[in-house]
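Q: Structure for this?
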Amino acid sequence: MYEFDWSSIPGALPILAKGMSVTLELTLTAIAVGIVWGALLAMARLSGKPWLSWPAATYVNVFRAIPLVMVILWFYLIVPALLQQLLHVQASTDIRMASALVAFSLFESAYYAEIIRAGIQSVPKGQVAAAQALGMPYAQVMRWVVLPQALRNMTPLLLTQAIILFQDTSLVYVIGLADFFGAAYKVGDRDGRLVELLLFAGLIYFVICYAVSWLVKNLQRKSVA
Amino acid sequence: MGYAWNWSVLLSATPSGETTFLGWLLAGLQWTLGLSLAAWLVALIIGTLFGVLRTVPNRWLRGVATTYVEIFRNVPLLVQLFIWYFVLPELLPSTWGSAIKQSDPLMQQFIAAWLCLFCFTGARVCEQVRGGIESLPGGQRNAALALGLTLPQTYRQVLLPMAFRIIVPPLTSEFLNIFKNSAVASTIGLIELSRQAQQLVDYTAQPYEAFIAVTLLYALINVVVMLAMRWVEATTRFPGFVGGR
Amino acid sequence: MRLPRLRFAIACSLVAATVHAQEPGGTLKKIKDSGSITLGHRESSIPFSYYDDKQLVIGYSQEIMLAAVEAVRQQLKLAALQIKLNPVTSQNRISLVQNGTIDIECGSTTNNLERQKQVSFSNSIFVIGTRLLTKKDSGIRDFPDLAGKNVVTTAGTTSERLLRKMNEERKLGLNIISAKDHGESFLTLETGRAVAFMMDDALLYGELAKAKRPGDWTVTGTPQSREVYGCMLRRDDAPFKRVVDDAIGKLMKSGEAEKIYGKWFLNPIPPKGLNLGFPLSDDMKALLRNPNDKAFD
């Protein structure tokens, strides 16, 4: 039978905490960029103008067709060379972090765009017609009538997507960035205690995600009531 | 450093000479498809089973199903995979563990990835099935029971056939997800498509060609699955009922 | 509205990628302009380039790389040079040098003719033979004993290519496991998933340095190849290569290189204070006497 030895975890807490800060930085950046860029994409798709809606739809469909692992590798192995040649930027930042931030932001935007599009579509058409009858231009209709209601309808889905994103950031393992999972793996490998560290990482992820999704559920119940 | 495109590299022989690099890609495609389809089949079965359990009157059965869903939804896929692959064999009695570890490595990687994917996806399918059942008017269940059908009969003949038709669109996206999620298996060494992409970059030094080819193959899978599921949706639609989109 | 512009930019960059053939100035100019240099290092190439228990990068190759960086700083007459560290794996190291993510990589990278088509190599820093690590009681003495068994090696290495070729040519029926890095390869061996680990002999001794019971393991088998390690640089960048070559040549001629060798191969090293006891080979002595950048194949 396996003999557990959890003794390497207390000493590794600073490394693990540093990993968690990387995880959170990735998650929060991707949420912020994803929602803004995703909202623009969603509005472009719904604008009814082919030169806007067609590129937006392509963007969303392409990103949703490719595995996240591949997207992360694309942005690490392929895109930096392209950007350097195009913009002549110096590689003065940590390419791993920068490419992961860009990859997650652009990837998540495609998913947020779909959620936001569904949210916008959940607002009855009559309201748009009414607002337009009052003389509001498209941008104002969106800003004052559609988006506030859409936002309320889609908040639970946006938060659920954020939890999925938080979990998915562990995939930066494939480019060797030490997020929480990467840090746990490294410590486990270093101390020959991979079993304990993997179980510990799983437990921490579970506690965080479970707590947040419980909050989301309660929020949902309150907003319905 | 200019880039010299060379698509013909895909047709040249691999160093060990048994096939071409294109052959490697197609082998990777086979693993991706085999793994995803095998996992999807089981995910549908256990997803349905637990989805039903989440809506039955018995509290304990509901509790079991809820626990399953919460565990597999709240731990990252990659962590689950590593636990199946690295941790499970160590926790088994040591004779079993070493028997597993001395078997064909490709089989070990495949089975760990398969277990991981179907448990993970099963939890998501379960939630869709539950949602589908709960969206049916309560009267249907009561009417069926009042007609003298047993609870299993009610599920089999009344609730599930309706629920499944409702949830075809969300199931389609789960089905698409399983192909994308299968790429995670590359991290434990299974040479599916995305691992082949990395291997090709290493062996051919033509990164653009390798990545573009693999990305196109994933896009192709996506399109084929979408068309197939659209056909399923059209043929299972209830005339004048749920499919009123 | 932004989207078409982005697509246009991507289209342009694709064109630029093919049109911009030679970037003037090279790595030295890039380092001078940015005031920083990005070093590629390994995470578990003991004792060449690896993390100690505080996650700092240490090792034989790392010390040589830092000496080269110091020479670059002096050459460019910079008061300070910011050093950025970027971990690489055997599988992505060449791409990362090519795509400009890292400027130089000194770890455990074999200089051979195939790779010279993609990157350039500095003066050599080490000579190895590819052998096997196995349990003392495994009954494995040499490569033919592996027939039909699980063998692990690290993805992207020369050993991986050799093993595949050998398996194909001699029909050994091996199950080859390609792990992400040497640490994962050894984990695969230690947990019983493979009976042997094929790799460069010095790295195999290095893995023993973190084994739970180093005495249980042995390095065995006829060397399947003789290879030299060099630092990897981008191709066609003679000025940068000259600075790095001179720095390494100076280390060797001055006897400094032999001191660094002694520190990592003949003295206790982290993480567990094990002494690898790996004396200078004749090949290594010849290299130290006569620094050069020749591949062995």
